[in-house]
Design brief:
Blueprint lengths: L1 E5 L2 E4 L3 E2 L2 E9 L5 E9 L2 E12 L4 E8 L2 E6 L11 E6 L1
Bound molecules: copper (II) ion (CU).
Copper (II) ion binds next to loops.
């Protein structure tokens, strides 16, 4: 899955993924540094431990490998204030 990050949104290449190991590439197309976290969503709230792709500078691409079970997940940027400004998106793992 490729995820574009820019101020202030995240654009995943797909919103439905197979469960298991997922290779994630974060491409920062914005000007500020961004990262990418993922947490499961249950009853409208994020639960459990986050997995992450590292802080990525403007123009750079970083990669991470996540283990995801089936369910609903929120992708978000954990830099201060970025989630509140809109840098989050739901994805479904099937
Ligand atoms: Cu950000």
């Amino acid at each position: 899955m490729l995820v574009y990050a820019q101020e202030w949104s995240l654009w995943p290449s797909r919103t439905s993924l197979p469960s298991g190991r997922v290779v994630v590439q974060l491409w920062n197309r914005g000007q500020d540094a961004h990262d990418l976290h993922v947490r499961r969503v249950a009853r409208g709230r994020m639960v459990g431990r986050a997995q992450a792709a590292p802080v990525t500078l403007s123009g750079a691409v970083t990669q991470a490998s996540w283990a995801l079970r089936s369910g609903l997940y929120e992708l978000y940027c954990s830099m201060p204030g970025h989630l509140a400004r809109g840098m989050h998106v739901l994805v479904r793992v099937r």
